Amino acid sequence: MPPTQGYKFNEAGAQPYYAKVSDGKHRGLFASRDIRKGEVVHDGTHLDVAFPDAKAYRRFVFALPRRTACDITEWTWTQRLEQNGSTRIMLTINISAMLSMGFTSEEVNVLPESESESSTSQLYYATRDIKRREEILTDLTF
């Protein structure tokens, strides 16, 4: 399967998203089919890298070619993986790296599973119904 075609969670289901440039603005992810509210859109549990500390992250980035390092820094965020745990530097090196931020709460249509204000989950769910070809947007300020 081409790397820009996303993936599917079961054999019967269509792939939930694909990557493309959004109307000259940026690279983004778009729904390849209608996605229902509450449906898992991305599972980063075994796909995302959690660096043990900032020093390990810096060593990794500085070992990369400059252009690649620039992309990597755009695909990095911080997140707690355990309730009351320390904040970890996270990185995704797969298609979900193109998940863009929504500018308003109305635009955001995918968020991590939330047990509190600061989610520790790497499972991203649709917060509302998402139509086919609609851009998938999140809010990583949690």
Automatic annotation (TrEMBL):
State the superkingdom.
Eukaryota
Q: Which Pfam families does this entry report, sorted A to Z?
A: SET
Species classification: Eukaryota, Sar, Stramenopiles, Ochrophyta, Bacillariophyta
Q: Where is the SET domain?
A: 27-139
Q: What is this protein called?
A: SET domain-containing protein
Q: To which species is this protein native?
A: Skeletonema marinoi
